[in-house]
Write a structure and sequence with these properties.
Tetracycline Repressor, domain 2; DNA-binding; 56% helix; homodimer
DNA sequence: ACCTGAACACCGTTCAAGT
DNA sequence: ACCTGAACACCGTTCAAGT
């Protein structure tokens, strides 16, 4: 009789579930997200979630999508319309000319924003790896990058390859960084791996390395892409 | 009484468990590996595994390590001894000179072997993301790369950054490729993402893209690294 | 439509009991 | 030392029952 069964106003919504799940992931990690725990956090019972999502994985997919939705894509906006028809665009391979550096700059800004979005929620990154790239925000990213690159003069095949390459690098960098590297066990390793002294094992050092490696790789990637090739 | 409790010869060994778990991962995916299922596959009961591994994650760590152990490191062998003292090594940034291209070639061969090792066991790749880089084979890789790069004349900081960059790219590429990309639902997407037509949604197409993107990125990365910089 | 308790078929892991 | 059955505290998910 006081079985509160259906409230006059829904207690849950997809948005509220996703926000709560993201907070839980950020605070306690992926494995803290169980249907019962998440429901409790929302003041509700486990099965209630299934009125709003088909499975738990669908919830985490939505969380991952929300994180990717934070990636800035505004640097591609100049390209988003009439991209296909930009006949005047000179060969993208050349390093001079007014528009030549634009795509490099846009890619760099996108890559940094992408990485920052993942760094803001490190615990979801391993899950991002599992789920495929068919989530809306990821498709939106792929579409924006592809559009900008073709508008800059790259062929469709080249644009696809470059976009994928950038995605590989950013995702790998996020994983390599946030899925934690070395531990501070110190010289236990030093004996077996002569080049890796204890300096490599400090977490704060690791953080600087990750930042440095990302910038090094990003610069190299963009410089290498701008260089003429023979394929 | 016919409680076969302890056999005269152990039924299990770490090696047998790891091999069986890897086969199970390859055949049916990560989620098929439960302690009960794996034990059954080994002709044994679930709890028996705990005589050989502390947790299930330790088993999967060992599987991941076994996969990484397949990566070829022989291209770094010329550098593994006396690496630190290679005084004669000219500045690695220059593109000419006999030893200059060597490290690029070694990195390329390593990256391809690394990717191939992961491609051979795609279902474990998402797990590799979770576990940190403190596994023996990964440390061995890091050590070999670092040694070769410093021997080629790179500073310790640069060698660290380059090694991490390469790892980011290969790992990201493996994830991006094997954690499945687009699906073949076709023009459902075509409406929302104008640049991604149905050609992008075919799995075989995706496979060619992954291969092409990997080679494009690898070449760009190495070319960009060889280019002089100002830091 | 949306939340509930009860139930199902699982998990990973512990442990005393066997040999 | 190494395998066993039984048990514990969980899972994700289904479903009839409530409003």
């Amino acid at each position: 009789m006081w079985h509160m069964a259906r409230p006059r106003k829904p207690l849950l919504s997809r948005a509220r579930i996703v926000a709560c799940a993201l907070a839980l992931v950020d605070d306690e990690g992926l494995q803290a997200v169980t249907t019962r725990r998440l429901a409790a956090e929302l003041g509700v019972r486990g099965p209630s979630l299934y009125n709003h999502f088909r499975t738990k994985d669908d919830i985490l997919d939505a969380v991952a999508d929300a994180v990717c939705a934070d990636v800035d894509l505004s640097m591609f906006e100049p390209y988003t319309e009439g991209a296909e028809a930009a006949e005047g665009a000179e060969r993208a391979g050349s390093t001079d000319g007014p528009g030549a550096a634009d795509w490099q700059d846009a890619l760099a800004r996108w890559a940094r924003s992408y990485r920052a979005a993942l760094a803001a929620h490190p615990h979801i990154v391993p899950y991002l790896a599992r789920g495929p790239g068919r989530r809306p925000s990821q498709l939106r990213m792929a579409d924006a990058v592809f559009g900008a690159l073709t508008a800059a003069g790259w062929s469709r095949a080249q644009a696809t390859h470059i976009g994928a390459t950038m995605r590989y690098f950013v995702a790998g960098s996020a994983l390599g960084s946030f899925a934690r590297g070395f531990v501070d066990d110190a010289e236990l390793y030093a004996r077996d791996y002569p080049h890796l002294d204890e300096a490599h094992l400090l977490a704060e050092y690791q953080q600087r390395v990750d930042d440095g490696a990302f910038e090094t790789g990003l610069r190299a990637l963009l410089a290498g892409l701008a260089q003429p090739r023979d394929d």
